[in-house]
Specification:
Transcription Regulator spoIIAA, binds zinc ion
Length: 182
């Protein structure tokens, strides 16, 4: 399956217009992201990748080029419902979700497992989960089956930066909840 996209019409929030783009399928060399640039009439882009389930190496470089163009055009990017695949990639290339001051990570999915009962699940973490957390800690998720705390399948340090990015997005304040509701 190749990359599918769906432009969801613009919507307005607190006098700001956003363009929402949803991605699903495989991010590969066939990717052509120019349609986003053609349609974007605003400086605010919401990227929802919850359906993106594969990324190959050529897709990685196309994506990084796309991020560069958005950055050059000074478009603010809001990443919502980032898929586990995308966060895995960010664990390898931290800049996969740009570190610029107008790039915001609002939520992402991680695979968690329970050491006690072997339950697995994909859990979505949001910026709201890190709101009241002390520095250097990550939110705890309880196992629905046995009540133990769940662990991340991958090396946790790899994802540590993603939690720092969530925390950085708290500057968006009242915008966070409506953006997460998309
Ligand atoms: Zn358990």
């Amino acid at each position: 399956m190749t990359l599918n996209h769906k432009i969801v019409s613009e919507f307005s929030l607190e006098d700001t217009s956003f363009l929402i783009v949803k991605f699903s399928g495989t991010l590969d060399e066939k990717i052509d992201l120019s349609f986003v640039l053609e349609q974007i009439a605003t400086k605010h882009l919401i990227i929802d990748t919850r359906g993106l389930d594969k990324i190959n190496s050529l897709g990685v470089s196309a994506w990084l080029d796309f991020m560069d163009v958005l950055n050059e055009k000074q478009i603010s990017i809001y990443f919502v419902h980032c898929s586990y695949e995308l966060i895995l990639q960010k664990g390898i290339i931290d800049n996969f979700i740009p570190k610029s001051s107008n790039s915001f990570l609002l939520s992402f999915h991680l695979a968690l497992c329970c050491d006690d009962c072997q339950a697995n699940k994909i859990h979505e973490f949001t910026a709201l989960d890190v709101k009241n957390l002390p520095p250097n800690s990550i939110p705890e998720v309880m196992c629905g089956q046995c009540g133990s705390f769940m662990e991340c399948d991958e090396i946790e340090s790899q994802f540590y930066n993603a939690f720092i990015d969530l925390k950085r997005s708290l500057v968006l304040g009242g915008l966070i909840e409506p953006l997460l509701a998309i």
